[in-house]
Design a protein that fits this description.
Elements: H1 5-16, E1 21-25, E2 32-36, E3 45-49, E4 52-53, E5 67-68, H2 73-89, E6 94-104, H3 109-115, E7 120-124, E8 128-132, E9 135-140, E10 143-146, E11 149-154, H4 160-166, H5 168-188, E12 190-203, E13 210-220, H6 229-236, E14 244-245, H7 247-258, E15 268-272, E16 277-281, E17 285-289, E18 292-301, H8 307-316
Antiparallel strand pairs: 1-2, 1-15, 3-4, 3-7, 5-6, 6-14, 6-18, 7-8, 8-17, 9-10, 9-16, 10-13, 11-13, 12-13, 15-16, 17-18
Helix pairs in contact: 1-6, 2-7
Length: 322
């Protein structure tokens, strides 16, 4: 069990009463914010999930500029080598390795939140802001959907789409995560199927456009799913796209190799509106630590991963989407 019994019970109770609520759950499930939407204060928490928001849009007075001070290639390679060893031993097939990168930034998290453009945006005062492109699960019409996102390339390079779709490493990574999510959805639903496989979305970033690869997986739920929201999410967490496969042993490898606390990064956030549920994986993430800021990012490591390319991808993901 990932979530506390009290957290599961609260979400189940709110769902059974059809009370709309916000949920924010950390990577390890130990920190959770569960609030009826009527009790969410815009002074403490702001969200905009695919246009559903608790605040009026604010026009930023300027564009925030962040400067990253990433860990050295040598330091990253030491973490990478731990994962590679476990891959060779067969203890994992895919591990999502992440790091925290210190930033030089003189503004506020709120300024970044107002500037960033993303499907899912979240700001918690003095803690973090997140601007995620990745859906975790959606539930509508008694169907649960997941959209795992694995595979990234710069969109402005020649033949970017063909290059990404034909890349053996990215393809293997995507197959693995789709298989993992199918297995996860089979725990909570029936008739699980892949509706769309390996489609591409273009995202605009401060470093230029990128293409990201996703798939759409769906399963059927019974009509009483509202009464079991907490129980369903508990069985699916932590998200497979930011852990790896097999999930249990890969989480151990993540703890050994990363050596830092993800906290809310790679957790999930979302809204239940009384009829439907929409949620995101909290990637693209800036955390406040006292007077300092860090950008948390990472990528999937497989047996065919190249350490130099993985390091470069890690740096490429340090951006504010615009």
């Amino acid at each position: 069990m990932l979530l506390k019994d009290t957290t599961i019970s609260l979400m189940n109770s709110l769902g059974a009463q059809r009370i709309p609520f916000l949920f924010i759950i950390s990577y390890n499930g130990k920190e959770c914010i569960i609030k009826p939407l009527s009790e969410v204060s815009g002074d403490e928490i702001k969200y905009n999930f695919q246009g559903v928001s608790n605040h009026l849009s604010e026009v930023p007075s300027h564009t925030p500029i962040i400067e990253a001070y990433p860990l050295s290639f040598e330091a990253y390679q030491r973490k990478f080598d731990i994962v590679k060893r476990e891959l060779q031993l067969g203890n994992t097939y895919l591990t999502n390795l992440t790091v925290a990168t210190p930033l030089a930034y003189s503004g506020s998290l709120n300024e970044i939140y107002n500037t960033a453009k993303a499907k899912y945006k979240l700001w918690i005062k003095d803690q973090f802001t997140c601007f995620s492109p990745e859906i975790f699960v959606q539930i509508k019409d008694n169907t649960i959907y997941s959209f795992p996102m694995k595979g990234t390339i710069k969109a402005d390079i020649p033949n970017a789409s063909e290059t990404l779709l034909s890349d053996k490493k990215e393809t293997a990574e995507h197959y693995t995560i789709v298989d993992l999510i199918r297995n996860d959805l089979n725990i909570v639903s029936k008739k699980v199927r892949v509706n769309r496989f390996r489609y591409l979305d273009q995202l605009e970033t401060s470093k230029g456009p990128i293409l990201q690869m996703s798939s759409e997986i769906a399963g059927d739920l019974t009509p009483d799913w509202h009464d079991r929201i907490g129980s369903i999410l508990n069985k699916l967490l932590p998200a497979g796209s930011i852990t790896g496969s097999p999930k249990e042993s890969t989480i151990r490898i993540i703890n050994e190799s990363e050596q830092y606390k993800r906290n809310y990064y790679t957790g999930i956030c979302g809204i239940y509106d009384g009829e439907h549920l929409d949620s995101a994986v909290m990637i693209r993430f800036i955390e406040q630590q006292g007077n300092n800021y860090v950008y948390k990012s990472g990528g999937g490591i497989t047996s065919s991963s190249n350490v130099t390319m993985e390091y470069e991808e890690l740096l490429q993901k340090i951006y504010i989407p615009n």
